[in-house]
Amino acid sequence: MKRPLLYSLLVIVMMIWGFNIIAIKVIVSTLPTITITALRVFMAFLALLPILYYKKMFRVLSKKEMAYVLGIALTGVLGHQVFMSVGLNYTSATNGGVILGTVPIATSIAAILFLGDKLTISRVLGLLFGFSGVTFVMLSNASLTIGFSIGDLYMCIVVVLQALSFVLIKRLSESVEVIYITGIAQLIGFGMLLSLSFVIEPNGISLLKYGSTTVWLLFLGSGLIATGLGHLLYNYAIQQLGASKSALFLNLSPFFAILGSALFLGEHIFAGQWIGFGLIVIGVIFGAGMLEQINIRSLLMIFTKR
User: Fold this and answer.
1) Among 21, 140, 226, 299, which residue has the fewest nearby CB atoms (within 10 Å)?
2) Dihedrals phi, psi of 2, to nearest 5 degrees
3) Model's pTM, two decimal places?
4) Between vectors from CA 249 to CA 100 and to CA 120, what angle results, nearest 5°?
5) Residue 20, pLDDT above cutoff 90
């Protein structure tokens, strides 16, 4: 796939994921959190199943490959979905979306630790700006006083788990097709989530009857489009572009989450949240090494000629 088309698809995925924060907020506020999350992940797997079957991708994985898949299921499916769904019960969709904007920074750090990327001054600055941005978001409220939400902490855990899963996907994609990784991880993650729901929400299945038509439509869209198709396209981008470069696009997701929160949920956006979002954007620019890729000498020559 050509780069411009891949970049365009990533922007669309970010828009879908940003609005998906709103959808999940509505869904988990109405239905049993873990139970509906398990079913949403299963819907994502069903969306990929025809492709896996048509391309005859099913095969026995080696022990090492299976270990990677289990790691992806634990971090990118079970941990990611549980902490995000539960976290959105205790924080606003705006806060959740903006905090998720630090995923590129976390991915950059994970790439340094596990993929051998170099630690530079630029990335250290990225970490500092990103941390400052999250702090602004987490302490923003109408009274301008310090207020900390446990939901914000859960969303920070989501960021760490997602970054780890991206690193594992990059490693495994060297020997296994991305679509197969995505599908199998979602299937295993569904089993983990369903087992957890039986323990935490023993009556979860029976409570699903209270969902409205709107909630179930959001559920279908979230499962099939955002979780299924969205993760497939993003994981493919990781394989083609690398974990750090693909993670840059995740910075667009908070913008759409903020926009959707205001439009569909009527959430008020505080100045501190915008400041935090801006700091996170700066952090991503530094953390992903974008400034390091600029040829300073060439720029000086251009300005000198002018």
Assistant:
1) 299
2) -70, 150
3) 0.73
4) 85
5) no
